[in-house]
C-alpha cells in the first residue's frame, strides 16, 4: 500500500489522507449522534411514562380506582396486585397479562425498562405503590403500576443508524471534494512552474518561472528558482565569454608556433633551426603558463571549496611574501592580530600576486599593511608608480585584460593574475578593489575576520 501511494500525485495522496481522516471523524460523530438521539428519546419516553404512572397512583382513593385514563401517548397502563393479577388497565392494555414480570424493590420504587413480545417492543416504567398509599387504599397489600408505550421507529428500527451513516458518508464526500479542490488550487502554481521549467534549456536561460502572489512556501520556491536561474544565466554567459577569450588567447601563440614550424619545414636552408626551436620553446612555455592560470581560474570559480582553516594574514605578510628580483624594496606593517578563515595557499597566492604586480609598476618602493577595520581584515598593497586610471579599475580584474603599461613591462604575462586574485577573494566572502591613492595604485583586500567564541 505504501509503495502504491508513493507513485501517486501529491494531490491524490493528500486527498486520500483527508478522505480517510474525514471518514473516521464523521463516523465517530455519527455514532455519538446516534447514541445521543437514542438516549434523548428514551429518556423523554421514560419521563412521560413515569409522570403518567405516578399521576395515576396519586388519583387513587380508598375503595376506588379511577377509571378515567389520561389522554396521552402513554396508552399502556396496568395496576397489578401482589399476586400478579391485573386489577385495572387501560383499553390498550386490557386483556393482556402483566406488561412485565419485573417488580421494583422496596428501596427503589421506580424502574425503567424495555419489554418485547411477538407484537413488538415497548418502553415502560414500573412504579411500586408506596406502603402508605397501599395501606390506605388496599389495606397494606403491595401493588405495582406499569405505564408504557410502543417504541417509536427511531428506536425500534435502524433508520437512525442509516441516516447518520448516510450523513457521515455525504460529509466525507464533501470534505474529500474540498480537499481535492484546495490541494489542486494550492498546487496549480507548481504545475505552472514545472511547465515553464521544462521549456528552459541551456541555449536559452532567459525564461523565468511565474511567481505567485504571497510569501508562502510555493512563492518562496518560485522566487528562489528565478534567482537560481538568474545566477545560472550569468554563469553560463560568463563561461561562454571566458571560453571565447581563452580560445582567442590560445589561438595566437599556437598560430605563431605553427607558422615557425612550417617555415622550418618548408625552408630548411633559410631558417635557423636552433633559433626556431628556441622560439618554439618560449612559445610553449607561455602556453603552459597560460593553461596553468586558466585551470587555476576555472577551478576557483567552479570547484567545491576545500575545508577552511584559520589563516594569520599578519604572518603571511611578514614571513611568506615572495618578491621579484627587481630592486624595489617591500615594506610591511601589521597592526594587531589579523586572522581569517580560508585557504592558506590561495591567500598567500593573492598576496604574492599583488606584491609582484606592485613591484613591476613601482618606482622606488612597495608598501604592504595588514590590520582590522569595521570587523574585517584589511590588507593594502600600494606602489608609487603611475597608478591606474579610474575607468580601468574594474577592467584590470577581467580575464586576459592587460593595459598597455602592463603589457610593456611584462610581455609574457597571461593577464589572469588579478582575475584569479579577485576570484579567490570572492570565494572567501571578501572583496578586492582599487582605492584612491595620492600616487600609484592601491589594492585593498577585505576579508571577514575569524570570530572567536568565548571559552
TrEMBL record:
It catalyses: ATP + protein L-histidine = ADP + protein N-phospho-L-histidine. It comes from the Bacteria. Residues 245-451 form the Histidine kinase domain. The chain crosses the membrane at residues 12-33, 165-187. SUPFAM superfamilies: ATPase domain of HSP90 chaperone/DNA topoisomerase II/histidine kinase, HAMP domain-like, Homodimeric domain of signal transducing histidine kinase. Keywords: Kinase, Membrane, Phosphoprotein, Transferase, Transmembrane, Transmembrane helix, Two-component regulatory system. Residues 184-237 form the HAMP domain. Gene3D superfamilies: 1.10.287.130, 6.10.340.10, Histidine kinase-like ATPase, C-terminal domain. CDD domains: HAMP (cd06225), HisKA (cd00082). It is found in: Cell membrane. InterPro entries: HAMP_dom (IPR003660), HATPase_C_sf (IPR036890), HATPase_dom (IPR003594), His_kinase_dom (IPR005467), HisK_dim/P_dom (IPR003661), HisK_dim/P_sf (IPR036097), Sig_transdc_His_kin-like_C (IPR004358), TCS_sensor_his_kinase (IPR050428). Its EC number is 2.7.13.3. Its main location: membrane. The keyword Transferase applies. One of its GO terms (molecular function) is kinase activity. PANTHER family: SENSOR HISTIDINE KINASE TRCS, SENSOR HISTIDINE KINASE YKOH. This is histidine kinase.
